[in-house]
Write a structure and sequence with these properties.
Layout lengths: L1 E2 L3 E3 H7 L20 H13 L4 E3 L29 E2 L23
Antiparallel strand pairs: 1-4, 2-3
Length: 110
């Protein structure tokens, strides 16, 4: 069974979201406190400046050492690929395709 974690496309979210309403509760800090809309927007700006195109939306994903590395995960790809996927007990990364990528509401662009 393949496992994948969803990710947030920064450009897609910023383009299709309304500030401040859609930014409420988007991120939490290390203590579990929800970031304010202004803090969330700042985080997205900083991550974008770092060259990140996508962000993990799972607390497991994006860690320095992926907890699924033994199952074949090669680590989160911030440049756009997101979670490469993993298979329990297989030790092989999942094939990457558009079907394994979740992007925030780009239906508005169609």
């Amino acid at each position: 069974m393949w496992g994948f974690h969803i990710h947030l496309d920064i450009e897609g979210f910023v383009r299709s979201s309304t500030y401040p309403d859609d930014y409420i509760g988007l991120f939490r800090d290390a203590t579990g406190r929800s970031l304010t809309p202004a803090e969330a927007r700042t985080k997205l700006t900083i991550d974008k400046a770092r060259g990140h195109k996508v962000l993990p939306m799972s607390k497991e994903c994006g860690a320095a050492l992926c907890p699924h590395a033994t199952d074949g995960c090669s680590g989160f790809d911030y440049s756009g690929g997101g979670c490469p996927g993993y298979q329990r007990g297989n030790g092989k990364a999942a094939p990457h395709s558009t079907a394994t990528t979740t992007e925030v509401n780009d239906a508005a662009d169609e």
